[in-house]
Structures are given as structure tokens and as C-alpha cells.
Amino acid sequence: MFNKMFKTKLSAAVLAAAAAASPVQAEGEYGILMKTLANPFWGAMGQGVEDGAKAADVEYFIQAVESDQAAESQLNVCNTMLERRPVAMITAAINSTNLLPCLKSAQDAGIKIVDLDGNLDPAILDAEGIEITFRIGSDNVLAGAQGAEFMVGQLGADATGPVLVIEGLSGNITGQNRTSGFADKLAELAPGLEIVASLPGDWDRGKAANITNDILTRNPDLVGIFAANDGMALGAVESVFAAGKGGDVVIIGVDGNSDAVTSIQAGRLTASVAQLPYLVGQQAVENVKAVLEGGDVEPQITVPTLVLTKEVMDAGTDPLLESVK
Amino acid sequence: MATSPTRTDARRPGRWARLQARSIEQLHVRLESLIVLIALSTLMAILSPYFLSVSNFLNILLATSTIGVLAIAATFVLSSGGLDLSLGSVLGFSGVCGAAVAVKLGAPMPIAVIATIGAGALAGLVNGLIITRAFVPAFIVTLGMLGIARGLALVISDGRVIYGLPNAMVYLGQGRPFGIPMPVIIFIVTAIVTHMVLAYTRYGRHTLAIGDSENAARTSGINVDFHRLTLYVLSGGLAGLAGLLFATRINSGDPTAGIAYELTAITAAIIGGTNLFGGRGSILGTMIGALIMGVLQNGLNLLAVQSYYQQMAIGGVLILAVFIDQYQVRKESRI
Amino acid sequence: MTLLTVSGIRKSFGAVDVLHGVDFSVGAGEVLGLVGDNGAGKSTLMKIVTGMYKADAGDVVLGGTSVLDLSPGERRAKGIEMIYQDLALAKQQDVAANIFLGREPVRRVFGVNFVDRTKMKQDAQAMITRLGANLPAINRPVGSFSGGQQQSVAIARALTFNPKVVIMDEPTAALAVREVQGVLDLIRQLRDQGIGVILISHRLNDVLSVTDRIVVLHHGRAAANLVTKETTMTDVVSAIVGGGDMAEAAAHEAQG
């Protein structure tokens, strides 16, 4: 998937270089700014955007930065992208503030702004006077709640025992929504399941593995782990299996990325609340096109999430499975 | 003077060498880096129809401003034979300090600005004191500070972006007097002042001499330890200024700002002709180095080339720049 | 007339005593040889005179006032210069930068002191010409020069600011025969100008031919203070190694 994308981009660049005399058609170009593609989640979303753009027959160019912490680089890339005068900027901002100056310029230039995956804070946007066309993404609170429902379904509503929650990067809104959604739903459905620790794993697989190790030492009878993304859930999986407790602990991640799918199929990770980033990317382009053609779209488009388990995948009947990349 | 005419002829440097010598003496810049910058810009202008415009030129300068100020700091420290690996972390730390003072304490803009730069200078002072008084190698001390400053930034901000700086402060990052972005103005003024200091004052000449031969500097009566201390304070203060530009550009103190920026800053300095081991360096050269990287990144962005390839390109330019430099230095020392 | 008086200098590095109370003096227009075996403490003693090291005890007096509390830079300003064996040059800097290192002339522009490059270059060129040194170009890094040329720069640096005392540490060790004569001539010129010269050298022939007096350091003490005219190679060698009949060793030295 990545290779294909690389080739497309590279050949696009080479073409642009070769055909300098006939510049890329600028009219109606969509600018898509991702965080980084060095992560299956963003890679899948990029792929969705690309396929969506091809299906809708629109011109587009995708840019990303080297890591999902390169806030200033992303702002610089964003400014540069405006030089190409796109008609729309579909952006997945690294944090809620880093792209603001660029988005302001985009708005002044009459470019449509789309918040991909809900990284922008509505309150801050209001304060800055920036109006976005729509935001599209999964509902992270709902994703967390789905995780809790699945866990309770596995363990039973009257189950008791300690549960570990591994949070994302401290202060990251996405991670906070997922974990709070999980915690609230869990308390509601199965009060006997007690969250004994909720610690920041900083999206880091190794850190999540260490946290799991530590908590397993303290609570050897751990019954469930919910991690705010798949990478951390897979770190937890390693620690649980290394401690000889494979199969005893229900481990749930969020994202539904390819590593997680592999792990679920191997019977290691119990489930992942799939975010369907491919679908998010695809629908983002479709909706932008609708807006540019004069149509109306909801200001908040929620793309459904799907709890991926071995059973669901083996059955293969859920229509959303097609969007799992 | 009493040599025969033929010998004088054989020794007379060619047009290129004379031009090079003049460039080095008067601009403190090697010609090769200037040629690379011009060639690269020309190439980008041919490849992308969007490259050659005033607004894109300002984009390049704007994108270069934070890293450029940091590269100035790196130039001073490197050319004195030192090293400051904490630049990126101190940038993040000082930005958070400034934002905390402005947003959480509600201090007026001048105080918040002073706090931002002061926080950087303070980190530099700690670096300098440990290096010059406790004789711990700069590599170790600044590597330690890299962790300490980053950790402090996260502690102060509680791991969250501190949003909502006062308007007067945001103007420093987002204002555009005469259509020129403020960070570009601040960056260029800083570059001019520091260029004068490094190239034309005793402080600057002593900085280079210390990096060249600490022994020569000491025996000449220069107070090497104190000079080194001031360099680390300067370096930290400039990192604080870079932190101010960063924070005001995005209207928030971001505790993760500037991760690994020190390496980019050092790269810019070295592409610009600074000797990694001291004794040679100029701010104008570093500016050209930073612009080479800026043009490369901007051009590749305009061509929508993956950021992975950009990193490869910059790595390649770095090695090429040092190769050309070494080749020239070796050739000259054979004459 | 005594110019520089060094008295009772003691110095130890940790447990190692290097100097145990050394006394000597040098007058204006006098050339003093300072000789001794490796490790006798010559370099340490000179670094105490220039202020690079702090003495544990003793005093260094120049022209009647103690310079003990002064920094190396302040002692240079008072007229104590040293030409180091390794030359202590900044090799990537040009000739003028080296000669004026630490004492660059400045010009005030808009209230800021800028280094006066023009004056530096002119004065550096003048000094190099006065010394009769043959340098390929004055605006080149001194690291690209030959050893002899580099030494000329080091000498020019020591002589540019009208020194009172010039210390030379093994100035002839790395030179060709013709160049050695040049250095010895220079020492005589300095003496004639009323400058006190301290010459540290292992080449006893040079020391005997150019000095007025010879101080021999042995195990951190001034073991002998000889008037050169009344001294033979044998006396010097004998003092260096600590007594005994040294006729054979002296004869070997005399052959050079």
C-alpha cells in the first residue's frame, strides 16, 4: 500500500518536473495535509483520500510531515501548499493550534477547510474566527464506549476484577475522548469491573508494554485492558503473553490497523474498535466535492466504528469490513 | 619579494581563488554554498511554476525563521569548539514558560517576552556553569539538558498545549507589517546583529580563536572559561527567541515544540561552512545553509514530494557540503 | 638592572612536587639561558611566570611590582611575552588575527567597538616585514604555513606590543640550520633593544653562544647560576645531570 503510494507521488513529482512547461492543472485542486504516513492509520486514511479522489475524478495532492509531532513543519508545509491555490484544504492537524495561521490565510483566500479526524477544537476555531466547512471522523467517545460494551459482553455484566486503561499522550483530546468514553460506559454496564489504573502510554508501544508489566505485577488477576490505540494495545499483548497470561485478559485497542488485524487473527489481541480511516478519507473527498458543487453537508460527519474480532472477520459478512485496510 | 617573476606567476592564485578569498575575507562566506543556493533555487523555479513568487519567497523565509535563529545559536557554540544539544528542548521549554507567564499568570506582553528569552538564557547559564566550572563535557551536559528542559516543559504545561496568548504577543508571530511576516523581520535583524558580532567584534574573533585553539586563546590572555560561559548563555537566549517565534506563530506554548531541532540547526550551520570542531563559522554562511535547506524543503513540498525524500535530500546536501569544504581546504593547504 | 625577579617559587601537582623554591632574575638587555633535563620543571616555571599556572608559594616581580595576582592577559599587557614550543597559534585564523589575538585594535562605530581589520592588517604586515619573515600571504590561515613560517608569526605576536621580557621555549628545536641562526640573531637584536630574554633550550651550543647567564634547573631547584663567559660545556652538563665528571658527555654535546 505504501509502496504504491510512494510510486504515485514520486512519479507525480517526476512528471511535474518533466512537464514543467505544462503545469499541473491548478483549477479545482484539492490539497490534503496529513500528519505522517509512517503509521498504518494515517496511511489508510491517505489511501482512502486517494481512492476517493480518483473515484470522484478530482485533482489532488497529498502532503505529510516526517512525524506526528512535527507541528511547525506541518504549518510550513501548509503555507507552502497554499501557493498552489487549492480549492479545498483537507487537513489532519497535529494539534489543535499548530495550523491556525495557515487556516486563516486559507479562509481569506476563499479555500474550503475540512477538519479530517476532528483534531481542531471548535472553541479555539471560534476564538480565531475560522469557519470550517465540515469536520469528519469517528466519534472517539463512542469508540471507547463500544470497547466497554464489547469487554462487558466478553466478561459478563456481573463480572468483577481489575481493569487497566492505557491512555494516549497526556493532553491529547483524541485519547482523552476514547478513554473517558470507555470508563463511563464500563461503570454504567459493569460496576464490578474496577479500573485500577489509567496511565498515559503516550501512543508508545514500548511504554504501554512497561505499564502492563508493572500493573500485572501489582494485579496478577487483571481481567481486562483497554488501550487508546492499537499500537499500545499490541504492546500490552506482548507483556500479557510474556507473563503467561495469554487468553486470560481481554485486550482491546482502537483503530483497527493492519498490525492489529494480524494480531487478532493470530488469537493474541482480543479486539480492536476499528476507526475505518480509509472510509474517513474517502468520504472526506466525496463531501468536499458535494460542497463545491453547491450541495449541503452536515457540519459534523461521523463515520461509524466497528468492533473487529476474530469472529467478525471470520464471518466476513459486515459491510464495513470492506473499509478495513 | 625577491623571488623570480616565474615563481610569482606560478604562485598567483587564479580568478576563482581570488574571488573565493575575497568572499571569505569580506563576507565570511565560501562561494560554493552561495552557488549551491542559487543553483537549487534555479532548479526549483524551473521545476515548479509556484516557486518564483514574492509570497513563496516569504514562505521560505518564514519557514526558515525558527530554525534559522536556532542555527545562529549553533554557529556560535560550534565555532567556539563547543556543542549544544539542548537547543530544541530549550526552545520548547522557553515557549512554554512564556506562554505560562502570559496565559496562566496574565502578565503583560513585554514581561512574557522577557520570560521566554530569559528562560532560555537561564537554561544556557546552567549548561555553561556546569561545563566551565564542573568540567563535565559539553556533549554530556547539553544532552542532559535536552532531557531536563523537555521534561520541565511537560511539567509546567501539564503535557498540554497552552493556548491563547495575548494579541500583542501573537503579533510577533503572525503580524505582517508591510506584508512581511514578523518572524522574518525578527530573524533577519537577529542574523544581521549576530553576524556583526561574530565577524567584526573582539567577542566574535575570540569565539573563533577559542574554537581554533584553546591553548592559543588562553596564552593570549583571553578568559576562556568566562567566554565559554557567555556563549552558552547566548545560545540558550537565542533558543528562547526561537521558542518565542514558535509559540507566537501557533499562538500557544507547545511542550513538544522543537523536538530534534538541534540537529537541523547544526546541519544548517555546517552546510553554511561552520567547522564542527570549532575555529571557523559565520552567521551569513549559516543563513545560506539554512536557506539551502528551506528552499529544498519548500521546492519539494511544492512538487508534492514525500517528506521522507526531503530528509534524504537534506542528508545528502549535508554530506556534499562538507565534502566540498574539506576538498577545498585540503587543496588550499597544499599550495 | 634587574627587570624580572622570580623568588621562592614552589609548585606541586597533587602529590608530585615539581618546583621546590626556585629563584632567578633577568635584567634588561640580558639573555638568560634556562636549561635542565626533561621534567626538571622549566615549562612549569615559565607558565607560572606568564600566569598560566598559579604558584603554591613565591613571588614574581616585574620592574619592582609583583604580578602574582594578575591574569595572563594582564601580565602580557605589563610586558611579559612567551613564545611557546608548540607556538600556541590559532591555525585556522590568518596572520593578523594571530598576532593581535586578545589585543585587537578597535574602532567605535555607533557606540559599538568593532575590530579594526585595516589597522590590524597594516600593523601585522609591518611587523612581519620588520622581522624579515617570508610569508606567502598575510590573509591566509597560518595552518597552511611551514613550521618556520608559523614560528615567525608566533614571534611577531610576542614582539608587536613592545615587550619587556620575552620567554622563548625551545625556539630552535624544529628549525633548519639556517633558520636557527636567524633566531639567534633575533635574540641578540632583542637584547640590544634592552629587552630581557629567557631562552629555554636543549641545544646547549645555542645557549652558550647567545646567553649572558645560564640557570640550570635540577629536580625543581636552581642548581646552578653560571655566567656564560666563565662557563664551559662541561660545567653546564654536569649541573644538568647533577654533578660528577661529565667531560665525555660534554664533548658529545659540543659536537652537537
From TrEMBL, chain A:
CC per GO annotation: cell envelope
Periplasmic binding protein domain: residues covered: 31-295
Keyword Ion transport among record annotations: no
Pfam family, one: Peripla_BP_4
Main subcellular location: other
Compartments reported by the entry: Cell envelope
Keyword Signal: yes
Position of the signal peptide: 1-26
GO function term, MF aspect, one: carbohydrate binding
Keywords, sorted A to Z: Signal
PANTHER family the UniProt entry points to: D-ALLOSE-BINDING PERIPLASMIC PROTEIN-RELATED
Protein family according to the UniProt entry: Belongs to the bacterial solute-binding protein 2 family.
This protein's name: D-allose transport system substrate-binding protein
UniProtKB/TrEMBL annotation, chain B:
GO CC field: plasma membrane
Membrane topology annotation: Multi-pass membrane protein
One Pfam match: BPD_transp_2
Keywords: Cell membrane, Membrane, Transmembrane, Transmembrane helix
Keyword Transmembrane helix in record: yes
GO molecular function, one term: transmembrane transporter activity
UniProt-annotated location(s): Cell membrane
Transmembrane segments: 31-51, 57-78, 85-103, 109-131, 138-157, 177-200, 229-247, 259-277, 284-302, 308-327
Protein name (record): Monosaccharide ABC transporter membrane protein, CUT2 family
From TrEMBL, chain C:
Domain ABC transporter: 4-244
UniProt keywords, alphabetically: ATP-binding, Nucleotide-binding
CDD domains (alphabetical): ABC_Carb_Monos_I (cd03216)
Annotated GO MF terms: ATP binding; ATP hydrolysis activity
Pfam family of the protein (one): ABC_tran
InterPro entries noted in UniProt: AAA+_ATPase, ABC_carbohydrate_import_ATPase, ABC_transporter-like_ATP-bd, P-loop_NTPase
UniProt name for this protein: Monosaccharide ABC transporter ATP-binding protein, CUT2 family
Native species: Primorskyibacter flagellatus
